[in-house]
Each structure stands twice: as structure tokens, then as C-alpha cells.
Amino acid sequence: MASPKPSAFAASVVPKAPEDPLFGLMAAYRADPFDKKVDLGIGAYRDDHAKPWVLPVVKKADEILRQDPDLNHEYLPIAGLANFTSASQKLILGADSPVIAEKRVTSLQTISGTGAVHLGALFLSKFYNTKGDKEVYFSNPTWANHQQIFSNVHLPFKTYPYFSTQTRGLDFDGMIAAIKAAPEGSIILLHACAHNPTGVDPTQEQWKAIAEVIRARNHFPFFDTAYQGFASGDLNRDAWAIRYFASQGFEMVVAQSYAKNFGLYGERAGCFHFITSPGSDAVDTVSRVDSQLKILQRSEISNPPAYGARIVALVLNDAALFAEWEENLRTMSGRIIEMRKALRSKLEAAGTPGSWNHITDQIGMFSFTGLSEKQVLAIREHAHVYMTKNGRISMAGLNTNNVAYVAQAIDKVVKEVQ
Fold it and tell me: pTM for the whole thing?
């Protein structure tokens, strides 16, 4: 036997990648034997008993599917389940949207929101602004995976100011100034609602100003929406920014996830939408873009998975199930809002230094507490409360059984660790 050759993938070529911080945090939590430990890092809804919650409407849809004698496991088309993608358009744009009526949108089913962001990034990398430099601008901070997704398709990124450490709210002036200063035609990634990780959203008037600057600079909007209906409990309110941009005639893309608002985390149901501006060539543009998106999809996943999309399509296309889903959304968003109120009230009652109104001012699953990395590590060590190093907590990890304990732990660390 010949002597073995050294690997073509030596450490100098393939260095060991760092562990994903969030999944590392989850592993540390699972390994902790402490009986009062609290997981505030998880980006998934938990009920008041800290258990995963299968939405009642999803259980009903699941049973309907199970009883369907025609159910099979054949491939879906490359673009996905047609009654899923069409219903997704109506959900995010509005059933009476001129974009849909004028056939200025094409939609493909994706591997949840992550797959939708990736498909959009890949498409823009290949086809947008092919004669010049192109950069994507993310909010600072943003969902960590945005950076990896766009880097993997060789799109360089920069950031615009977003979170104010002083007010623990939106740095609106900094955001506007940075978007104005970005090279003309830049890609601007925007969180439609329940900004991840800060929980801070622009007001409707601020969204109008953001749209005005993006139009003036000829930028390209890229919306990521993972929390429609989950943020406020109101599907229309949470879609307002996207619908406003669409009403202003922007050409843009939208990445849509059903992980949070349907609780279908593991089923990976998502949708990607390309929307073009009004014009005589709009239908032709959509047709050409659709053809290229299908080639990209075919080369990566061939056909999207069926089960999660079938669940969503059943609910979105049935009036009674849709109404029940809206009630389920109000249950989830309502519980999180109550936990925000409870945490703030307990911190204020304890006289915890600082102001805590940002806990209730922010919206959605996450909140930026304002805790420093040093305080985060201390609260993990002494109280076994787990959160990301930047002080982001998942409000879904709080419940009536642990919110007082968490408030006491935060109070102690803020008073003792500077």
C-alpha cells in the first residue's frame, strides 16, 4: 500500500470554524444541571410552562391532512405548492394588492426564512447591478445569519446605525444619515417588524421617511419578515411597512418565514417574493426573473418540502381556520406582551438602577436589555440565566413561574457588576 498523501484540506486551507454562538449557548444550557436554570436565548415560542406549543389550528390542519385519501409524497414543483405561494402573497401584500392584480410579483416556496433570504441574496449577487459594485447594508445589530448568508454569495456588506444604547430605542437619525450616504443603488436590508435582535421598530411615519431616502438614493429594498402576526397579534399591522413600500411602486424582494407565526420551526416553511415596479414591461420582467429564480432553486434544492407548506396553505385558504390562527397569534403575542409588563414592573419595584421602559416599548420575541457582556456572563454563572452576550433575551423564555427569579437575578447583577 502506497504511503498516504496528506489531506488536500489542511488546517491552513480549512481552518476550524468557531462554534455558532447561539447553538453553543443552547448546548451549555442543556448541560447545566441546576434546577432553576432559565433559557432566554432560545428563538422559539414557549408556553407558560416553558414547553413548545403546537398551535391548535396546526393540530386541526394536521388531522385534515392525515385524513385526506389523496395525500401523497410526490415532488412539489420547483416553485413549490401553488396554493401556498399565492396565499403567501395575499398575506404579506394584502388580498386586494395592485401588485398581485397587475401580476407584478412572483413567489417561490423556500426552506423557511433562511432559505428565502439566501435565494434573494443569490439572485441579487448574480443579477443586480452587474456593471458596478454592489453592497448590502444591514442594521447594526442584525440577525447574525444575515452576514453569513450574504458573505457566502460574495456580496459585501456594511451596516447602518439602528439601536441607540442611550435610549435603547431606534437611532433614527443615524439610520437615515447612513442610508443617505450609502452609494447609490445599494441593497438595504430591512426587518419588516419585531426587529431581531433588538425588538425596536420604526413608526409608520419613520417608515415613510426611510422609503423617501431609499427612493432618492435609488437603493434596492430587501425585506426580511419572520414575525408577521406574532409581533403585535395583528397581521395587517405587522405587514404595514412592506405594503407601504409596495404601494409606492418600489421594485424589491421579501423573505417570508412561517417558523414563528405557525410554530412550524422544524418544517421549514417559507416564501420568497420578487416584486417589480408598475410599467408596461412589468409582466415580462416578472416572467424573466421567475425563470432565473427557478434555475437557482433547481440547482440547490430541486423541490421544496411539502408538509409545512400544506399545513400553512390549508389554514390560509380556509376562512374558519384562518380566524382560529389569528386567535392563536393573539395568544402568543399576548403572552409575550404580558411577560414584558411583568419583567418591567418587577425591575422597577426592586429599584433596579436605570430605566426599564424599553422592555415594554420594544416588540416581538426579543428584547435588548442593556446588560453588558460582563453582566451577562455573571448572571449565567451565578443565577444560571442564559442569554446572548449582547444582552438580548427571548421574551418567550419568561413565564409566570420564572419571571420573578429572572428579575431578581437582573437586579442583583446590575447593582453588583459594573
Answer: 0.93
